[in-house]
Design a protein that fits this description.
32% helix; 5-stranded antiparallel beta sheet; 19% strand; 18 strands; 5-stranded mixed beta sheet
Length: 575
């Protein structure tokens, strides 16, 4: 073969590899979009990306989960989904290249991923049964068929490119030459003598640059049609899956929160500092932190929602509708929530005005008694519509604190992402043992007989919020000008209250900061102190003392198993 033909053959092989990879991407895209459309007929949570992502979250080591929350915050779910899509794209590329030569093997690889998605969907805690496997299976079949078809368009006829592997008469990988028997040997049998004919020179191979090297037109038409159909399926799937969300949003829009029988006192005039850079006393709903495992925010129609209360010590099991709760005695309270994944100085803490039903009242009506009064159950297990389980001490729920089944947040119905239609709020406990969103079931049991979701993953069964404080301004590595600099922030010790905040510059003495007016012991408290800043690098450190007289510990601890501890400090350079 001449050098020109050899170069031409090499270029063609590279082109075929690239088109094989493109085939894999198109097949993967088709599989995901068809599955999305099929999920609209089942439920959005059965989508393979959501199901596999949920399974990945459940099996991710605690340290990795903690790292993701620390670095990505509320975007951790988006990062996970993008990671899943990236992995699927990489696998699709490999399968596409493989399928050009091994069509059945590559298509089988796509089907295997469908099986994985099906097992992930049916194995989720909120699975509704075998139907959840349908989207993954249907999507995989569509992707496998498309990949097989596209690979067929890329097969080179005999005599083109000089490769027997591209001979349609021989299954790639069989190891036999075209025309050979299945055993790989020439056909056997009685030989016959035939007249000898003059030798005819072999027909030269078709040049590899010839248009007949592969079915280019057929490939392009199939690929374009598949891409268009996949895009249409994806758009239709998203539209149909969003219909349930629209129903939930519409039911939320129809909610009018009644005036509470026990309204929250007005926030004291001096509770919020007017210091640039300091956190607002009340956290807006749009700014409130969100840390949960839901890749898809549950969209619950309030008209269909029900809450069941049952279990050990429940003498009168009950089921409540959303309207039932709206008609009950409602109370309104300012309560600060804190996530156990909040590092020292972290952002996962927020204060809001909640309106809801006192949870202790509902439990008492069902005949529930706390352990201190002889009740057999010491744990309340709340279950979310997405299968999450949260375990809360019954004693704390019924000890007189304002534990709520919250219906509203900052004057409006709960936002969908914060638990609409109903969530739990318990002052003084980290969210993972108290703040079940999208709640639909409350079971009374014991800590010894049941471990909720996070406890199974090495977190503590009981987790009262630790006394903590944070410097909001100046920010880390800020470069303020020399002179008077206002240092300000927040401190919290829910259900105990903050008594004192102190600030230290470098290794100097502790100075007591001025405290803003206290709203209640269940809310955070703002503080500030003027600092005469001299030029150079400085370290500012803060600590708080709660109303029990307990000083915030200096000892550093990570978030696992029951919340971070230590003093928050920032380094600044004064110019």
């Amino acid at each position: 073969m001449s050098d020109d033909k050899r170069d031409q053959a090499g270029r063609l092989r590279l082109l075929l590899v690239a088109l094989g990879a493109l085939s894999g991407l198109l097949a993967g895209f088709a599989a995901l979009t068809v599955a999305e459309l099929a999920a609209a007929a089942v439920r959005p949570e059965s989508s393979p990306v959501v199901a596999v992502g949920g399974a990945a979250i459940d099996r991710t080591p605690v340290a990795v989960k903690d790292w993701a929350i620390r670095h990505f915050g509320s975007d951790d779910k988006l990062v996970l989904q993008l990671g899943i899509v990236a992995v699927l794209a990489a696998v699709a590329l490999v399968l596409g290249v493989l399928t050009r030569r091994f069509r059945r093997t590559g298509a089988a690889g796509v089907l295997l991923f469908g099986v994985i998605g099906a097992f992930a969907a049916t194995g989720r805690p909120d699975s509704t049964g075998p139907a959840d496997a349908v989207p993954s299976v249907v999507g995989a079949v569509a992707g496998a068929l498309l990949l097989y078809a596209l690979a067929g368009r890329l097969r080179m006829p005999r005599g083109v490119g000089g490769s027997a592997a591209d001979d349609p008469a021989a299954e790639p990988g069989s190891g036999r030459a075209p025309g050979a028997s299945a055993s790989g040997h020439p056909p056997t049998g009685p030989r016959t003598t035939e007249p000898t004919e003059p030798t005819v020179p072999a027909e030269p191979a078709v040049p590899v640059s010839h248009a007949a090297a592969f079915d280019r037109r057929g490939f392009v038409l199939t690929a374009v049609a598949a891409a268009a159909a996949s895009a249409g399926a994806g758009a239709a799937g998203r539209a149909l899956n969003g219909a349930g969300g629209r129903d939930a949003a519409a039911s939320r829009a129809r909610v009018t929160l009644p005036r509470p029988a026990s309204p929250a006192p007005a926030v004291p005039a001096g509770a919020g500092l007017r210091v640039p850079g300091a956190s607002a006393f009340t956290t807006a709903n749009s700014d409130f932190y969100r840390v949960d495992t839901a890749l898809v925010v549950p969209k619950v129609d309030a008209t269909d929602w029900r809450l069941r209360i049952h279990g050990s010590g429940v003498r009168h099991p009950a089921t409540h509708s959303f309207d039932d709760l709206l008609r009950r005695r409602l109370i309104e309270r300012d309560i600060t929530l804190t996530c156990v994944s909040n590092e020292v100085g972290g952002p996962y803490v927020g204060n809001a005005r909640w309106i809801g039903v006192p949870l202790a009242d509902l439990l008492a009506e069902c005949g529930v008694r706390p352990p201190s009064k002889g009740g057999p159950a010491d744990q309340l297990v709340a279950r979310s519509v997405d299968g999450m389980t949260i375990g809360t001490p019954v004693e704390e729920v019924m000890d007189g604190r304002d534990a709520l089944l919250a219906l509203g947040m900052n004057g409006e119905p709960l936002p969908l992402e914060h638990g609409f239609p109903v969530r739990m709020v318990v002052p003084g406990l980290y969210g993972y043992v108290s703040a079940c969103k999208w709640i639909e079931d409350i079971e009374l049991t014991t800590f010894d007989s049941y471990d909720p979701y996070w406890v199974k993953r090495s977190w503590a069964r009981r987790a009262p919020i630790k006394t903590q404080s944070r410097i909001d301004t100046p920010k880390p590595f800020a470069r303020p000008r020399a002179g008077t600099v206002m240092v300000a922030g927040v401190a919290w010790a829910q259900h105990r209250g903050i008594d004192k905040v102190e600030v230290r510059v470098d290794d100097g003495p502790w100075r007591e900061a001025g405290l803003a007016a206290e709203d209640s012991r269940d809310t955070w408290r703002q503080w500030s102190i003027p600092w005469r800043a001299a030029k150079g690098g400085h370290t500012l450190t803060v600590r708080a003392t709660d109303r029990t007289g307990r000083l915030q510990t200096e000892q550093r601890a990570r978030t696992v198993p029951d919340g971070a501890s230590g003093w928050h400090s920032v380094v600044v350079t004064v110019e």
